[in-house]
Design a protein that fits this description.
There is one protein chain. With 123 residues, the chain is mainly alpha-helical. It has a single domain, classed as Hect, E3 ligase catalytic domain fold, CATH 3.90.1750.20. It has 4 helices and 4 strands; from the N terminus they run H-E-E-H-H-H-E-E. The strands form 2 sheets. A two-stranded antiparallel sheet has the order 1-2. Helix 3 packs across helix 4. The longest helix has 17 residues. The radius of gyration is 18 Å and the shape is elongated. It starts with a helix and ends with a strand.
């Protein structure tokens, strides 16, 4: 099997798992979610309130540093169970598509940059 055939075989396997809803990528853990007994992502209500608060603060124009300070003031540990949040963790959370209900597996299409962010988003 040459490299092109191997690449196509891998892509076909990924597509099949996505179509059959058995992709581990779709179920990757992130803050605010737990894995339920059926091995599906389920909202963690306590962490979801924190995620919502972070988005509210960001949309109100607060900086990542100010959001981190607010979380620390409230005594909320980071996803890595550290007492302090860092800007990178908050930035990753804000740009995670699972929180905006825009998760697309096998993305293919045009992308544009968010006006206030460096990351791209799908159209």
């Amino acid at each position: 099997m040459n490299m092109i055939q191997k690449s196509e075989a891998i892509k076909n396997g990924l597509r099949k798992r996505f179509q059959d809803s058995i992709s581990k990528l779709a179920k990757r853990m992130c803050y605010g979610y737990d894995i339920n007994p059926d091995d599906e992502l389920a909202v963690n209500p306590n962490e979801a309130k924190i995620v919502y608060w972070i988005f509210e603060q960001y949309l109100a124009g607060n900086s990542l540093r100010k959001i981190a300070a607010g979380l620390e003031r409230q005594g909320i540990p980071s996803p890595a169970v550290r007492p302090r949040w860092n800007r990178k963790a908050i930035d990753k959370l804000l740009s995670n598509e699972k929180y905006t209900d825009r998760v697309l597996l096998q993305k293919n299409g045009q992308h544009r940059r968010c006006p206030n962010r460096k990351q791209r988003y799908s159209l």
